[in-house]
Amino acid sequence: MSAIQARAFKYGDDINTDYIISGKHKFKSADMAAMAVHAMEDLDPDYHAKVSREGGFLVAGKNFGMGSSREQAPLVLIHSDTRAVLAKSFARIFYRNAINTGLPVVECDTDLIDDGDELDLDLAAGYLKNVTKGTDIPVKPLPSVMAQLLEEGGLAAHFRKHGGFNI
Amino acid sequence: MIEIPGKTIAEKILSAHSGTDARAGDIVIADVDFVMGQDGTTPLAIRALADMGVVELFDAGKVAVVMDHSCPSPVEGVSELHTMMREFGKRTGAKVYDVGDGVCHQLIPEQGHVVPGDLVVGCDSHTCTYGALNVFSTGVGSTDGAAAMAAGKLWFKVPETIKITLSGELPPGVFSKDVILAIAGELGADGATYQALEFAGPAIDAMSVEARMTVSNMAIEVGAKAGLMRADAKTLAWYEGRSEREPAPVDPDADAAYVRELELDVSGLEPQIAAPHQVDNVSPLVEFEGTPIQQGVIGTCTNGRLEDLGIAASMLSGRRVHPDARLIVAPASRRIYLDAMAAGYIQTLVEAGAAVVTPGCGPCVGTHNGVPSDGENVISTANRNFRGRMGNSEAFIYLASPAAVAASVIEGRIADPRTYFE
Prior knowledge:
The structure holds 2 protein chains of 2 kinds.
Chain A: E1 4-10, H1 17-20, H2 23-26, H3 32-35, H4 47-54, E2 56-59, H5 72-79, E3 82-87, H6 92-101, E4 105-108, E5 118-122, E6 127-130, E7 135-137, E8 139-140, H7 144-151, H8 155-162
Helix pairs in contact in A: 6-7
Chain B: H1 9-18, E1 27-31, E2 34-38, H2 42-52, E3 63-66, H3 76-92, E4 95-97, H4 104-110, E5 119-123, E6 136-139, H5 142-151, E7 153-157, E8 160-167, H6 176-187, E9 195-200, H7 202-206, H8 209-217, E10 226-228, H9 233-239, E11 260-265, E12 272-274, E13 282-284, E14 295-299, H10 300-303, H11 306-316, E15 326-330, H12 334-342, H13 345-351, E16 354-356, E17 377-380, E18 396-399, H14 402-411
Parallel strand pairs in B: 2-3, 2-5, 3-4, 5-6, 8-9, 8-11, 9-10, 14-15, 14-17, 15-16, 17-18
Antiparallel strand pairs in B: 1-7, 12-13
């Protein structure tokens, strides 16, 4: 997985999956590209428009992705060109769903990032640089099983490649 | 000599299903006894199975898909997804629960698909509900669900466990919903992330199986992976006639290692309320007494069972829903609907002014059946009150017990249910 350079779009703590994609939209369709225009809309109606322009990092506080198990949450973020989610901590189901669908998730101290900062992330090398501030931000490594799944493009790709679990 | 501590319920069930000596922190691949999906998540699981190149399920008798979140279909898009689920059932042999059968988390235990000691995954976060029946059950996303449907197994990180001991006796007008709301307020929305909860003590023993399910249902609201309880005589009696499989109850070892232990004496507990827009924003209900209410909801996987409908019916008998309020009732399953009719509860509720909707998730997830208007206040027995949860981000959702909802719709404002139990 190569390095990702993009801008930070910063939000707060406890962002639940209803905020990432509301129930009133997610049940109606399996077309994630169409659904993505509603990503994060109850918190920021312009999220999709802003992030999909050049791609970006979604930066948040603690417990990102709490609540529902909806896999539409990581999928609409991917379809909004969210390159990775950076947070102080993640809710369990969202964390698995993100890895399974190929969305990188990074645990780090997001107080060191401001909205609009340019960031440089290399998961394989294990570094995150805040280019705007000229600082290095330590990242918590992914558990090895998750690193493997992400590297292979997610759980479906892992299954297709190995004909089942091979972790 | 180094003493090896005993095991929690979570460690024992994951050990038995992985064939390993599973301890908190271990990663195991474990056999699952049942896999479930609902109409918001199954379509993506079907797509994931196709992406995986999987045609056959590991065991069609151990897979069910349930139409409950948006049922009957309110719009064309949902109808197409429901058709996809029905075709999936025909193609693979998976059990399909259709319009009016009920909420997945009522149906899976009620129809005898799971028994004590099982390991279960469901593509819905409230799958933790069956912990009340001594089942290690946890919510997963659609791709994990698809992997489990294909392989009959899934990888798990064995969770640490927080033990919560509940002593004392609930006062009249205070219920298991108040207990779990109080715990959610205490632990916070991420208080048990990556961990399991284990509930025990005389106050749990005294609860009906239905009331216990309300407690386990909301384990996910503090981030927990499971909300486990022992199986006792009540649990085993509840299973009679529901399943042909033999329950294999799992008790924690007396010297099990817990990451944290909490004790709560429920004798002094007041009715609780979770105010907008976070489930852990919990206070004694009296602090919000008098807040005008436009809509009440009794139902959902948290509180749509027979006992809940019975409590509401006993309070609304001979009374009316306030002219400025409306009450929506969604029985959690067809069987509960029938039992509530036989008991006269439905008659009482409808005479009092309630609108009864199809068994299922009702208005909880914002797809239909009672989307509130801008600025309206809703009091609901559901488990989530996030902004926009019920389909309008300008509405305000309060969570409480069925008794508190009944009292509030009678009075048209948030009201203390205890006065109805004096």
